[in-house]
Amino acid sequence: MFRTLFTTTAAICTFVAAPTLAAQCGNTANGFEAWKGAFAQEARAAGVGQPGLNALASARYANGTIAADRNQKSFKYSLSKFMQVRGADTIVAQGRKRKARNAGFYSSLEQRYGVPAGVLLAIHGMETGFGGFMGDSAVVSAITTLAYDCRRSDFFVPHAIGALKLVDRGAITPNTKGAKHGELGHTQFLPGNALNYGVDGSGDGRVDFYSEADAIASTANFLRQKGWQPGAGYQEGQPNFRVIQAWNAAGVYQKAIAIMASRIDG
């Protein structure tokens, strides 16, 4: 039932290979067009095809993305404040209902990947309110803007390459909408992670991160590939907490996911 988006080691190696020459980053919109021209050479060398290169050429500097990147206030809250602001009680209540309604689906994911339903549902609820809002920013423009921006260019360049490869494969288009940082779909995968960990959870032969089944299965696959130990605990200090850390770098987010997941799973 679950088929991987990409299975060959060669494909993954091509994706992660570092380009020989780096395009010059910048901190204003002024150099973005020149950067795109240089970055196109890096993208082509990394295996991006013409559809992806066309998407890069049409990308626009995303001022909203830069503003959001400079203003991530919620991650500075205390844990209790963060959970209140993010609606933890609602996520838990809705998560329990969704788990009961789709028990077979979540059971099959746990059997295959070892990840409990509560963790997947907590992430789904936290990221998009269970698909209620998956973003209104153009993914390619957002992620290439962050790759160009000097603040975290090294981190976002591989995800920009990933986004262009997703365009090549028809998984997204130049106009696909996602979050301000270029995350896409129900659980807000960064494009490079979508490229590497996407699986077909619905059985229709393709991977669509705007399909709930595909996005949830891909999240389970990501966590398992990052070292999730079936049956082990996931609260702070337990073996699988470090895997939650691989999903999001903010400590308050990690703790909130662990707490909500345990409440959903009862």
UniProtKB/TrEMBL annotation:
It is an enzyme of class 4 (lyase). Residues 1-22 form the signal peptide. Its EC number is 4.2.2.-. Gene3D superfamilies: Bacterial muramidase (1.10.8.350). Residues 32-234 form the Transglycosylase SLT domain. CDD domains: Slt35-like (cd13399). It holds the Pfam family SLT_2. Keywords: Lyase, Signal. One of its GO terms (molecular function) is lyase activity. PANTHER family: LYTIC MUREIN TRANSGLYCOSYLASE, MEMBRANE-BOUND LYTIC MUREIN TRANSGLYCOSYLASE B. This is Membrane-bound lytic murein transglycosylase B. It comes from Sulfitobacter dubius. The gene is mltB_1.
